[in-house]
Specification:
By secondary structure, the chain is an alpha+beta fold. It is built from 9 helices and 4 strands. It has a 4-stranded mixed sheet with strand order 2-1-3-4, covered by helices on one side. Keywords: Transferase.
């Protein structure tokens, strides 16, 4: 059984949806970051970085980094078809975009939401925040340009990259996303409305 440590509205939503879509046997453990539970010694024993998500594998080992979890689950449950075969050109593109989202959009959102952690100048947080938001928007535009006929990033079949994108886009202003990135907005809606994802979305995010 997999054990997912996460908090509402965090990057653990994508991993939870990936577990559900993969057909994995899993349980979730809520770590209330608002109450500082991720900073406690008990959770540090799970993830020394004191961040969610963290995923305990069936053998008892623990992995961190949500994008890595998505790739692990894609291969551990390959029959679910949530990523192309390892070593294929299609898989190279899938992994490229998944990591693109992780190192650019996810990282940019951290700077936007936790701008005080990225400057020693107490008066500079607003500049960090606005710069990060523009950075995130620019990278969403790149994904928009990469989407073809859809509805998903690689056509008719949803992938781990689409699930990851749904999670990230849930942190964005929906009106901006719809106006600036209509194809991406439709992709996110298609993921959000999937029967196994919809209840996870409702549990993690305010809007239905």
């Amino acid at each position: 059984m997999y054990r997912l440590y996460g908090s509402a509205g965090s990057g653990s939503a994508a991993v939870e949806a990936a577990l559900a879509e993969s057909g994995a046997n899993y349980v979730t453990v809520t770590v209330n970051t608002g109450e500082g539970e991720h900073l406690a010694a008990e959770f540090a024993a799970v993830n020394p970085r004191r961040q969610v998500p963290a995923l305990e594998l069936p053998d008892g080992s623990v992995m961190t980094e949500s994008a890595a979890m998505m790739l692990h689950l894609a291969d551990a449950f390959s029959a679910a078809g949530l990523a192309p075969p390892p070593g294929s050109s299609a898989r190279a593109q899938h992994d490229r975009w998944l990591l693109f989202m992780a190192v650019n959009i996810y990282e940019g959102e951290l700077r936007r939401f936790y701008s005080d952690r990225y400057t020693d100048d107490a008066g500079g947080t607003k500049a960090v925040e606005s710069n990060a938001y523009a950075y995130v928007q620019r990278h969403y535009a790149m994904i928009e340009d990469a989407i073809g006929a859809g509805p998903f990033l690689f056509g008719a079949q949803p992938s781990m990259a689409d699930i990851y994108l749904w999670n990230l886009a849930s942190w964005m202003d929906r009106a901006w996303l719809s106006a600036a990135c209509p194809k991406l907005s439709r992709l996110v809606a298609a993921v959000r409305e999937r029967p196994l994802v919809a209840p996870i979305h409702n549990a993690h995010f305010d809007e239905a």
